[in-house]
Design brief:
This is DUF4828 domain-containing protein. It comes from Ligilactobacillus animalis. The radius of gyration is 22 Å and the shape is globular. Strands 4-3-2-1-10 form a 5-stranded antiparallel sheet. The longest helix is centred in the first third of the chain and has 23 residues. A hairpin with a 4-residue loop joins strand 6 and strand 7. The protein starts with a helix and ends in a 9-residue tail after the last strand. Helix content is about 25%, strand content about 40%. The chain has 2 helices and 10 strands. By secondary structure, the protein is of the alpha+beta class.
Amino acid sequence: MKRKGLISLGHTLFSNVINFNKKSKQPQVSLPLIYAGSWQFTDELSNRTHCLEITTDLRILIDHRELAGQVQTLTAKELIFLDGYGYHLRIDAVDSKPISVYDEADNRVYELVDELDHDTPCL
């Protein structure tokens, strides 16, 4: 009887170690940190390059001006921000990196380029 209890206990401990190891191999990134950083995007209609900055507390700045509004949705794949005029900005992410921003006011999608990878940094 004791032997059966020890085998059961050993199996439980072994299962917990396996589950712990599986969980520890997948590092969890805080969702705001996925989006935090500085990017550039180009408006092809006006031929202007703009800067998009997202802070770790999820404030959004475009060309160094903070947008009034609030984050409505935050997942590993998208951040949806409702601005003060009632329009949404949707920032899409792939592999924990923002790749594009959709501006509902213009009904346009802009590709994001990491500011450090761009020839002309945001001023």
